[in-house]
TrEMBL record:
This is SDR family oxidoreductase. It comes from the Bacteria. It holds the Pfam family adh_short_C2. Belongs to the short-chain dehydrogenases/reductases (SDR) family.
Length: 268
């Protein structure tokens, strides 16, 4: 009796046998996502442009299996198509796509060029849509799957500009937040559109997770810490659980959701 009662709950977070594709997997936050997925048994393919950086980032786990690299430029539809076809040939059908890559240019809020504004919109929302669109035939062939987009707290709230008074080099630009807000809406749209096909589409919005280079400026980190209810900045491992959950069977009845991992930043 106990065995039958517990059986449906035993492997809720087990990713054994699941193939996860992730863009931007060797960056500051991506490496935490990849490590969490690997720790729970997933096979992970990092889609990116810099194989050398991939190998350096994951040098400790390169020999354990389950981790692979595929060359891909998410700004290019032909490159995305070729990468997904190669993944299908080498590793089989994917179960999960994580859209984590981002690119852009320009920072000064009232001096962005048209080209800079458009590039940043494409660097978050456009690239996410491009990868989502191209992975759909494979998920459909597999009978369903999961797509996880990465947005930001700045897709939900405006920056507290006083945090940047002494550190203008770190100012979050307007086209970044606009693009991340678009990613959240894109998530809701496709969750509704793809639900009948057993494809769940969700989103994760990280809060203050400054990179190692930004953390070298202790004063700016202190500004972030004092504005956050938990009193600290996020670490990559703080984000990993969200992606394990949304990649696993535990989230099979969750779609169209934006999971905010921000230490409480957006509740104030």
């Amino acid at each position: 009796m106990a065995t039958s009662l517990l059986a449906p709950y035993a492997n809720l977070f087990d990713l054994t046998g699941r193939l996860v594709l992730i863009t931007g997997g060797y960056g500051h936050l991506g490496r935490g996502m990849v490590a969490g997925l690997l720790a729970h048994g997933a096979t992970v393919v990092v889609l990116g442009r810099d194989e050398a950086r991939f190998k350096t980032t994951f040098a400790e786990v390169m020999g354990v299996g389950g981790l692979h690299f595929e060359s891909c430029d998410v700004a290019s539809t032909p490159s995305v198509q070729a990468a997904l076809a190669a993944c299908r040939k080498r590793h089989g059908l994917p179960h999960v796509l994580i859209n984590n890559a981002v690119y852009g240019a320009g920072q000064q809020p009232d001096a962005l060029t048209d080209e800079q504004f458009a590039r940043n919109l494409d660097g978050s929302a456009g690239s996410a849509y491009r990868c989502l669109r191209e992975v759909l035939p494979y998920l459909r062939e597999n009978g369903g799957g999961k797509i996880i987009n990465v947005a930001s707290m700045y897709g939900l709230v405006a920056p507290d500009f006083s945090a940047y008074d002494e550190y203008p080099q770190f100012l979050n630009p307007p086209h970044y937040g606009a693009a991340k807000a678009a990613v959240i809406q894109l998530t809701k749209y496709f969750a509704s559109y793809l639900g009948p096909e057993n494809i769940q589409v969700n989103c994760v919005s990280p809060g203050p997770f400054p990179s190692e280079s930004v953390q070298e400026t202790g004063g700016f980190v202190a500004e972030l810490q004092r504005r956050n209810p938990l009193g600290r900045i996020g670490r990559p491992e703080d984000l990993a659980g969200a992606f394990v959950y949304l990649s696993a069977a535990a989230s099979d009845f969750v779609t169209g959701h934006n999971l905010v991992v921000d230490g409480g930043w957006t509740i104030r």
